[in-house]
Design goal:
The structure is a single chain. It is built from 5 helices and 20 strands. The chain has 426 residues and is mainly beta. Strands 3-5-6-10-11-12-13-14-15-16-17-18-19-20 form a 14-stranded antiparallel barrel. Strands 1-2 form a two-stranded antiparallel sheet. It starts with a helix and ends with a strand.
Length: 426
């Protein structure tokens, strides 16, 4: 079996693992704070650096300069999420409560492969995921009033039955082609084959607020698929300065039919438009600095961006999570300490998509993070093999607002992750 066949089989295994694993990622909204362990160690910055095989996730034009290589990594992501409600009196007279999401450890695999075909042409593939709209709150702690009178004991935090939560997984397979316009400039394109899986449970308290109660909650996992594209440019301008840019328009996904009563427009949950620009430069012969700006247009996807009060769940227009578009600024530094060891650090600072006016649906999707602090490094075991690592800590952020049920609600989250990656040059 040749190396290319081995790489493709590894990609298939990683893709299957990513599809089956529940996803909850370090988040700018529900996008990861970075793609590839090296970028994650630098706050996610890397649009203008070709140092791994994740061009399809970051900037397809990087593949023209990345060389022949393979990366396989695993991120251990540990979020701590909490919701609380005050101002209604304790149960059974009211529905004040404080609960934490049970799931606190997630395994997030990633894979990249790049091959130089000729002096001008390079091909590659990246397998990665998005997530973050994942929560599992226990049931049984409240006695909730019923709309027609009476009370329902043993309810969850949103007055439904049993556990409360959602699980969203997005898997992206990004084959990549990059072409050198000349020795210093390249363009690239990555078709994005997207598969997503979703489930929701414990939302019975909103049966009266949907156009389709049978497709609101507790229907197991449903899936959808779509085809998108990412375009990229990279240029080297001498004196160690490089520039990169990438753009991906909104991806039209097939509907979640089993949750047509939850998401706006009958279960439509598209992938938002996103784009970025970056620059990298050598501060010294051993120190490189990278700065990126990214924008994610969550507000242009009705299921995500619509206000929770715009209409009934599942309607057109239908209530959503009320997320704003986010702007993310990333700065990363890497220091080649010696020929075998590189150390990294970074800061990722973004605006918060979650607003207090739409706090109740965001109990399910507490994508409130604003700042990620990162460290990382690479150790070259020999001229062709290396081991990289990253560490991320996102300090606690909370958002409060008026509840759709009663009183005032607060969602809170902090995050930690540790990632490792094996890289091979050939």
């Amino acid at each position: 079996m040749n190396f290319q066949q081995t790489a493709l089989r590894a990609a298939a295994v990683l893709a299957l693992g990513a599809a089956l694993a529940p996803a909850a990622h370090a988040t700018n909204g529900y996008f990861s704070h970075g793609y590839g362990i090296k970028a994650k160690g630098m706050g996610g910055a890397g649009l203008a650096i070709a140092q791994d095989a994740f061009a399809g996730a970051n900037n397809p034009a990087q593949a023209a300069f990345a060389g022949d290589r393979l990366e396989a990594g695993l991120d251990l992501f540990m979020p701590d999420r909490e919701m609380s409600r005050t101002g209604t009196a304790p149960s059974p007279m009211g529905i004040d409560t404080t609960v934490r999401s049970d799931k606190k450890l997630f395994f997030v695999p990633e894979f990249g492969y790049n091959k130089t075909v000729s002096n001008d042409l390079s091909l590659g593939i990246a397998v990665y995921g998005n997530g973050g709209m994942n929560s599992t709150y226990p049931g049984g702690q409240l006695t909730c009033p019923m709309p027609g009178g009476g009370a329902m004991p043993g309810a969850n935090a949103l007055c439904g039955m049993g556990q409360l939560g959602v699980d969203l997984t997005q898997l992206v397979v990004a084959p990549t082609i990059a072409y050198k316009l000349n020795a210093s400039h390249s363009i690239g394109v990555s078709p994005l084959l997207v598969y997503q899986q979703f489930s929701a449970y414990g939302l019975h308290g909103f049966m009266g607020s949907t156009v389709n109660a049978a497709a609101l909650t507790n229907n197991g996992h449903d899936d959808s698929s779509g085809l998108g594209v990412r375009l990229g440019y990279m240029g080297k301008f001498g004196n160690g300065v490089s520039v990169g840019a990438s753009y991906s328009p909104k991806i039209n996904m097939s509907r979640f039919k089993d949750y047509a009563g939850l998401f706006a427009d009958g279960g439509d949950f598209d992938i938002p438009e996103n784009y970025g620009v970056g620059v990298a430069f050598q501060a010294s012969p051993a120190v490189q600095v990278a700065l990126d700006y990214n924008h994610i247009s969550y507000d242009k996807v009705p299921a995500i961006g619509n206000a929770s009060t715009v209409g009934p769940l599942g309607g057109s227009p239908g209530g959503g999570f009320g997320w704003k578009g986010v702007d993310v600024f990333k700065i990363g530094v890497q220091w080649a300490m010696n020929p075998t060891t590189t150390l990294r650090a970074g800061i990722n600072s973004g605006t918060n998509p979650v607003t207090g006016a739409n706090i109740t649906p965001n109990i399910l999707a507490p994508g409130v993070m604003k700042t990620h602090l990162t460290l990382g490094g690479t150790y070259a075991m020999n001229p062709t093999s290396e081991l990289s690592w990253s560490f991320m800590y996102a300090p606690s952020v909370s958002v409060s607002g008026p509840s759709m049920l009663a009183g005032t609600e607060t969602v809170k989250m902090r995050q930690t992750s540790i990632g490792v990656q094996y890289g091979m040059k050939f």
